[in-house]
Design brief:
Layout (H helix, E strand, L loop, with lengths): L2 E10 L4 E9 L2 E6 L8 E4 L4 E4 L1 E6 L4 E2 L2 E2 L6 H8 L2 E8 L7 H11 L6 E7 L5 H12 L4 E5 L10 H14 L2 E5 L3 H13 L6 H5 L3 H18 L3 E3 L5 H12 L4 E5 L2 H4 L2 H4 L16 H13 L4 E2 L14 E3 L2 E3 L24 H10 L6 H15 L17 E11 L18 E11 L2 E5 L2 E2 L18
Helix pairs in contact: 3-4, 4-7, 7-8
């Protein structure tokens, strides 16, 4: 790979705005400065454009089995969609089957990710705790996976008891891993689901009504208390509600190393969307909440109470009975229709990996809710720091990977599932107007998205072995 110089752009990081040229040599940024001399370098004129670090989505689920089907985006189609949205690195979750070795699960997910189109790493779900799994944690860290996800929900499947969470967190401290927490109250959910089914309350909105916000808040406080007891840092995933945000804020005010993540769906949608005729499209766990929760989460982003915006991308078809082209064959991938007439059978998950940065720029930066610097921190830098990728990823600086997004802050687009690249038949933001989107996307100095043209390839993405990160 040769030399590339991007001229006349505005370099935007989490802290700085600089009118400068960017010289790329091979896969890395060599120099950022004004009127650079580049000799035989290829030149790109970025006048009027912003130069952003490639987005990092720390929360995705590609090719994930669920409810007798599988999430519709795999590690190629989902990565391609991410790139068109300005994201050049994703961190996917490796599920652990009952009794399965963490390392065996990781090896299986590595095989699935061989088709990766952008750079990637993994978190490991820890869904059963015993001598064997705890003994594997240092080996997991040696393999470059330095974060594990713990669940307080999904009883008899993934949920850990408090004592098991305590032991897992203590082992994470010993071996330099970051515990992540899915916070809901699994016991309360089971009782409320059983009561709803017995009463014939089967519509999609009952998915939300049986997973109450207070259960999320309680589990967040509980997880923070367990982490504080053992001296562990904690990253709370996909926060949806006021109570959970209060728990994280209170912990941070006390100096505890706790971070919070939310997702775009929790900034815009409510249980009213679940009441729509196509409400199954909005079924995810934890569920969307209320307009008040939306507003407070936005306030949390503005004031720095929340540190990361991921997606929890786990796409399914709304109508999975229609055959699609899949690896040269016509196949049907069952989707949300599996839960017609019974909310407990609707696959939980939403598309969003392509939408995240464009939606957050339009309705965050564009409406004055967050600054451009906060946008970079929320979509790239903070995740890079938390998960041990910084400064290789998450910023534009000499020595960093040349993951560069040439961002047009004035371009206008209309969101359309037909035009977007996520492999599903709907988009949560269908028909919404966005202002601000990628013009070009570079992965380690290689142009992979040029306007509407895909120049990437299956297998070009690299696994990123990670060290321990830093809570920000």
């Amino acid at each position: 790979m040769g030399r590339l110089i991007i001229r006349n752009g505005i370099v935007l990081t989490a802290s700085d705005t600089i009118a400068a040229d960017v010289l790329v040599e091979g896969e890395r940024i060599a120099v950022i400065g004004q009127r650079l001399q580049a000799g035989d370098a290829q030149e790109i004129d970025a006048t009027g454009m912003l130069l952003l670090p490639g987005g990092i989505d720390p929360h995705t689920h590609f090719d994930l089995p669920m409810f007798g089907t599988v999430s519709s985006d795999d590690h190629y189609t989902g990565h391609k969609a991410a790139a068109f949205g300005g994201t050049t690195t994703v961190l996917d979750f490796v599920p652990q089957d009952p009794g399965q070795s963490l390392l065996a699960a990781l090896e299986g997910w590595q095989r699935k990710a061989a088709k990766a189109a952008i750079d990637y790493s993994f978190h490991s779900n820890l869904t059963w705790v015993g001598e064997k799994t705890l003994a594997e944690l240092p080996k997991l860290a040696s393999a470059g996976v330095t974060s594990v996800k713990l669940f307080t929900a999904y009883n008899k499947r993934m949920r850990l008891q408090d004592g098991e969470i305590f032991l897992a967190m203590r082992a994470c401290v010993e071996h330099g891993l970051l515990p992540m927490l899915h916070a809901e109250n699994g016991d309360v959910i089971d009782i409320m689901v059983g009561e709803a089914l017995a009463a014939g309350r089967l519509a999609p909105e009952w998915h939300a009504f049986t997973r109450p916000a207070w259960g999320e808040a309680e589990a967040t406080y509980r997880g923070i208390a367990l982490a504080a007891t053992v001296g562990a840092p904690l990253y709370v995933v996909h926060m949806t509600c006021v109570g959970a945000l209060e728990a994280v804020c209170r912990a941070r005010e006390q100096g505890l190393p706790v971070m919070g993540e939310t997702c775009p769906q929790y900034l815009f949608f409510t249980t009213d969307d679940l009441r729509r005729p196509d409400g199954a499209k909005w079924v995810c766990s934890p569920p969307v909440r209320t307009a008040y929760d939306n507003a407070v989460l936005w306030r949390g982003l503005e004031l720095g109470w929340l540190q990361v915006v991921g997606t929890d991308h786990c796409a399914f078809f709304y109508d999975g009975t229609r055959p699609i082209d899949y690896e040269g064959k016509k196949v049907a991938i069952p989707g949300k229709e599996l839960g017609h007439g019974d909310f407990t059978k609707i696959p939980n998950g939403l598309p969003g990996v392509e939408d995240r940065m464009q939606i957050l720029w339009t309705y965050g930066v564009g409406q004055g809710r967050i600054t451009p610097h906060q946008f970079v921190a929320l979509t790239s830098t903070n995740a890079a720091k938390a998960f041990g990728l910084y400064p290789q990823k998450g910023t534009l600086a000499p020595g960093a990977d040349a993951d560069i997004v040439i961002w047009n802050p004035t371009t206008r687009r209309t969101v359309s599932a037909a035009r977007w690249h996520q492999r599903t038949d709907y988009n949560l933001y269908e028909g919404w107007q966005i202002t601000g989107a990628p013009e070009q996307v570079y992965l380690r100095g290689r142009l992979i998205v040029d306007g509407d043209t895909w120049l990437g390839a299956s297998g070009q993405g690299r696994f990123l072995p990670r060290r321990s990160g830093t809570i920000v």
